Structure formats: structure tokens, C-alpha cells
Amino acid sequence: xxxxxxxxxxxxxxxxxxxxxxxASGFTLDNLAVTWFRQVPGRERDGVSCISDxxxxxxxxxxxxxxxSRDNANNAVFLQMNSLTPEDTGLYYCTAGSSxxxxxxxxxxxxxxxxxxx
Length: 118
Known about the structure:
Helix content is 0%, strand content 53%. By secondary structure, the protein is mainly β. Strands 2, 4, 5, 6, 9, 10 and 11 form a seven-stranded mixed β-sheet that branches. Strands 1-3-8-7 form a four-stranded antiparallel β-sheet, with no helix packed on it. A hairpin with a 4-residue loop joins strand 7 and strand 8 (76-81).
């Protein structure tokens, strides 16, 4: 079965950390660009980070706090989120495709909810 599955979300206090996972099955992630997005109801989605053959890229508020990395052995991409603030709250989902940040992805997961309390 071809799918992307996110996990690792939850409720955390401000200043805490979470590590999100984006795991693929049925295809290989290591040659694709993987973008993490955050969706908040009533707002446009925000691109948070991307990892591709060009390296890693981060949205401005994520720089210095978030780190995205690959685990090719397990066909997964991670998003380590530190120093979380309530503004980081949202549904985080990953996409995989030929380039970063784009709507023209090939695969998308259902997302994992992150809630940061003040």
C-alpha cells in the first residue's frame, strides 16, 4: 500500500519539544523532496521545512528551533521541534514530490496534531 503516515504529535507546554515522523510505504522517500506543512483552521497552510537533494530549508520562525532529517534505512523523515510556542499549534502533515514547498506533490499524509499550551 502506498502511503505517508505522520506520527509524534501531541499536547506539550510552551518551551517543550516534539519529534514528528513522516514514514513512507510502497515507495522510497530518499530521492524525493519532503516538505512539512502546518495547517490551522481558517488560515492558509504554512510551509515549515523541507529536505531535498539541495539540503534543508526552513520557514523563518522555524529556523534555529526545528530540524528536519532523513532516516533512509527506515524510509522516513523527521521534524524535531524544540522551544515550541502556542503559535506552532496546528495539524502538521508531510508531502513528498519533486520539489519543495509546492502544491504539486505526489504523496501527502493525513497529518498529526500538535497543540502547544501557554
